[in-house]
Amino acid sequence: MAGRKACFVDYIALILLIVGGINWGLMGAIEKDLIQGILKLDYTIARSIYVLVGLAGIWGLFATLGRLK
């Protein structure tokens, strides 16, 4: 696993982690929710994106731990 190349899922996870990080930063700094407030997405769609960001975080955790071995 240490020498594996990044796959499509790795890139999608990275994008979702960046979006999630920016969202948390905006929530902390100016109390605005990027996903639901600024983009005006429906609650169900926003909640689905939150779940995807969470799954991306888990994916990134295991990908990072796999590279540390």
Termini separation: 8 Å
Radius of gyration: 14 Å
Domains (count): 1
Any low-confidence stretches, pLDDT <50, length ≥5? none
- Write down the overall geometry: elongated
What portion of residues is helical? over 70%
Structural class: mainly alpha
Largest sheet: none
Task: Determine the strand fraction and express it as a percent band.
Answer: under 5%
DSSP E strands, number = 0
Q: Compute the average pLDDT.
A: 88
Count of helical regions: 3
Order of helices and strands: HHH
Describe the model.
With 69 residues, the chain is mostly helical. It has one domain (8-68). Helices cover 78% and strands 0% of the residues. The protein has helices spanning 8-30, 34-38, 43-68. Helix 1 (8-30) crosses helix 3 (43-68). The protein is elongated. The model has no long low-confidence stretch (mean pLDDT 88).
Please render the helix and strand layout as text.
Layout: H1 8-30, H2 34-38, H3 43-68
Question: How would you describe this structure in keywords?
Answer:
3 helices; mainly alpha; 0% strand; 69 residues
Please sum up the structure shown.
Helices cover 78% and strands 0% of the residues. The protein has helices spanning 8-30, 34-38, 43-68.
